[in-house]
Each structure stands twice: as C-alpha cells, then as structure tokens.
From TrEMBL:
GO terms for biological process: amino acid biosynthetic process; aromatic amino acid family biosynthetic process; chorismate biosynthetic process. The lineage of its organism: Bacteria, Bacillati, Bacillota, Clostridia, Eubacteriales. Belongs to the chorismate synthase family. Its EC number is 4.2.3.5. It holds the Pfam family Chorismate_synt. One of its GO terms (cellular component) is cytosol. This reaction introduces a second double bond into the aromatic ring system. NADP(+) binds at residues 47, 53. Its cofactor is FMNH2. Pathway: Metabolic intermediate biosynthesis; chorismate biosynthesis; chorismate from D-erythrose 4-phosphate and phosphoenolpyruvate: step 7/7. This is Chorismate synthase. PANTHER family: CHORISMATE SYNTHASE.
Amino acid sequence: MSGVWGNKIKLSIFGESHGKAIGINIDGLEPGIELDLDYINKEMERRAPGKNKLGTPRKEEDSFQILSGYFNGRTTGTPLCAIIHNTNQHSKDYEKTKNLMRPSHGDFTGYVKYNGFNDYRGGGHFSGRITAPLVFAGAVCKQILESKGIVIGSHVKSIEKLEDKSFNMVEIDGEKLKALRENSFPVLDESIGLKMQETIIRAREERDSVGGVIETAVINLPVGVGDPYFDSVESTLAQLLFSVPGVKGVEFGVGFDISKMKGSEANDEYYIDGDKIKTYSNNNGGILGGITNGMPLVFKVAMKPTPSISKTQRTVDIEKKENAEIEIQGRHDPCIVPRALPVVEAVTAIAILDLLQ
C-alpha cells in the first residue's frame, strides 16, 4: 500500500479508522525548529469530528502524542513521529454490512486490491479519519512557512448550488486569511454561509448529503518556486490534493473558465510596482511554466457529497456474488467540506515546504 510521499520532506501515514491509533512520520525537517503545540492543537480542532450539527456525531479529540524527533520544544532533525489514539469507535455498525459494498466508497476496490484482507470498519485506511495525521504534519509545515511570511487560508466557495464570493486573486490580505481559520464555517459572505449551513442540515434531515468547493490562497511566495513538467507547483500540489478523500477536481486560477477566454483576456499582463514585477490580473493563479510568479497562488478543489447516506441504495453482496440493497448505519457527515478545509490547507503547506527545500 502506498503510504509514503515526498522528495525532501518525506511523509509516511499509518492506521485505520477503527484501529487503536493513526499517525504520521515526517522525515526531512531541519533541527532546531520551535514548535507551537497550541497552534497545532487549534488546527487539529478545526478538523476534529463531533463539534456541531453540520458534521458527524462521532467525537474524537484528535489529541496527538509526539513519539520522536522533538526535544526541549524543538525538532531534533530526526524523523518526527506523532500518533492520535482512536477513542470513540462503533465497529459493530459495520459488522452486519461487511459484505455489502457501499456505493462510492473504497470498499469494492479495496476488497479486490487487498484480496479481502482490508479493514472494512469505518473504511479502514481509506477513511477520512486518516487525514487527522495530515493536519498534524500540515500544522508543523504552516508554522515554518509563516516564519517566512508565507500564509495559507481557505473558505467554503460553494455548497451544492450556493456560491460564496471569490478571493480577489490580485490582492489577498494575510490577516484575513488567518482570520478565516477562526470561523467554524469560513466564508466571505456571512449571509450565504448561513444558507449553506441550512442546506447541509436539510440534507441530513433528508438522510442525504451534499458536496461543495473549497477555494485556497497562498500569499507571499517568492518568485521561482517549482520546476517545469513533473515537479511543477501544480503537479506537486495536485498529487497531494487528490490524496485527500473526497476530492474529485482541482483547478488553478480561473481554472476551466480560462478555456472560454480569448488570449487577450486570459493573459496576465505585467507592470512594475517599486522593486517588484506584478500582473494586473491573476487568471493563472500565481503559476506560470509550473513556477511561482510572485502573485497569490489560488486554486479550488471540488469535494463530492459524502457517500455514506442513510437512504436505501443498490449494491452487491461480495461474498454471495448477488445483487443486494444497503442502508448505511453509523455516524457520518452530511457534508465533508467544512472539515476538509484544514486538510486542504495542511497538504498545501506540506507541498509548498517540500518545494521550498
């Protein structure tokens, strides 16, 4: 199973949703980096389940324990390893449906790839629960980046058909990006945000789920980060973003809409501002030739509706090899978008730090 990523910063994730613990090993961090554990805890709390009626009622504190690579408040330069104990599993919810392949989950593909030996409880290693260690790693990387003045922030761009305002892709304020993290449902237009939350609650009441889009910005990146082709900023970010469960699409800048423009509209024209070269527009999202151009790096990710819904669905019994129906039991998010924001930011921070090394 592929649980390792990275060139200069190497990650290895481990664990299952209903196992004893989940965790991550981070190799490649410089020695002497001071870590703010309160900062990490706040990031973990943003992703943690069971906080409000918009998410799953499963409550996990996501308290982490650092096992190695940290001494006297600073990194040692050896691999930084952290674990998060699972404390609130309802494994019996999955016993009676273990042979029923849940639609749009990794049950069927996992069963085939691992010859039926995969842990099916709560999705096992395929579960979004495994993103908690990624948030830990991302919080470490965010601190390092912020010490260099690089800030990452996100907001809920859409839920179902409801659209929030977009970031101003030319001028994005770092303090406002940080302030978005303090909001349990980060949006730029609070009135739209309330309607989005109502949509999520209604989906839960209807035993259904909804998806949405997250827009993320990275500001104060130096010019020249990344390489053409295989190690471009887009390809590096996309690999990690598509590793987040539920992500089905990624677009940079204006994304697919750039295909509807003429060259004269899409091109980001240059101008001199003091000692810096900037662009009047930012349709390419701060990346040209796979390399940062000094403008804000902006991208969006599309999250699918949570596949675990309580409505009756058609499926197959993998053991009996016959058609069947399933009503999924257990505790699930009617929308994973709000809790996915810190995960998207986390993998962004990991990718950017790897590119900067």
